[in-house]
Amino acid sequence: MKIVEIFGMKAAPRGCYIEDAFSLKNSKAMKGLLSISIIMHHAYLILHSFKNYNGALQIFEHVGVIVVGFFFFCSGYGLITSLHKKENYLQGFIKKRFLTVLVAFFICNYAYMITTLLMGTKYAMDDLFYAFFGLKLLNSQMWFAVEIMILYIFFYLVFRFIKQEKVAYTVMTCLVVGMMVGSLFLGHDHNTYGISNWFHGEWWYNTSFLFMIGMFVARFKTKIVTIIKNNYLLWLGLSVVGCILLGSYTNHLLKYKGYWVETELYHGFLEKFEALAFQLPMVVCCVAVILLVMMKVGFYNKALVFLGKLSFEIILINGVFSNLFLGLSSYSVTLYVALIILSTILAAMLIYRIKLWVLDRKE
User: From CA 304, how far away is CA 34, in angstroms rounded?
Assistant: First the structure.
């Protein structure tokens, strides 16, 4: 019990549920916990790519898609919750949401650019020009910032100018699905090295619909929570089974066909649609498990909430240190990971403070 108390975990009494399980503070705590797993995920990918590493960090190989799905869900859920609860929420929305992401994006973008240039990486001048303005990405991990800003713009325009709720949700759904399909047909980058073009790659679309699911859950929260509470164990069991079965087949598809069957001469659209048809429901099931667990177990503590507050900056900046300290991994993977985590958190704190200063906002 003491270990549980140390980590701030609090289980609901039998037959009861955590009050307001999906509140901002509880969501931030979960984001803080998951942001550390994203660091481990990126560390594994880099070690595997450059050092042919297949050690203990391999358990984080597929965690990224689930964590990003949860982040998309929270974003969509938070927007609708705020829209319903806060009067005149859309007034000042661009500064509150869009510019907050934009400032952090460019700080991290320039940090990565400067670091890689100092380390001797060579870029074509036209690529560097586009990357300076964020129109191409030197660090492909920063795709999330670009997409979330686009989704914020969609949300603002749709709910600002369409007053009929059903129509607004329908238009928003069409925009998100259209963005996903467009990205799928764009395929991967084949003629660039170390540079990522917008919407090229499955990571741009394989979790995006969680944003819409979050919006719908927020809209029908009362009904959905009531249904779940009436058969909690059934929904938890179905979600876990879905994770296992869909996850197993998704891994099979990604290993033998999936998104990367594509070449310059073969688009592989059918294989991509098949992979998406199983991977997206798998992510939905995994996110559902996280949410269902949150209904029974509270993860709130000050440390996790603090990390959750920095989670966006953590996602964007950790690639700098994953590359910067890569040489140390030859001596000790543990030291390499520890330095990445520590440096990322410290840098995220600094970026967060700079962001508040630029936007003239208080804590």
Answer: 9
Q: What are phi and psi of 86, to 5 degrees?
A: -100, 125
Q: Which amino acid is at 106?
A: F
Write out pLDDT tens, residues 225-236: 999 999 999 999
Who's near 286: CB < 8 A, 6+ residues apart?
66, 69, 239, 243, 247
pLDDT in tens, 56-73: 888 888 899 999 999 999
How is residue 241 written in tokens? 């089974």
Rounded Cα gap, residues 327 and 336, in angstroms: 8
- Could you tell me the two tokens for 324? 């910067």
pTM of the model: 0.92
Locate all alpha helices (DSSP H) within 52-187, ordered by sequence: 63-85, 93, 99-118, 125-132, 143-161, 165-186
Per-domain residue ranges for the chain? 2-358
- Return phi, psi of residue 197, to 5°: -85, 150
Please report where in the chains the tokens 């980590």 appear, as a residue: 7
Question: H-helix or E-strand containing 53?
Answer: none
**306-317 pLDDT per residue, tens:** 899 999 999 999
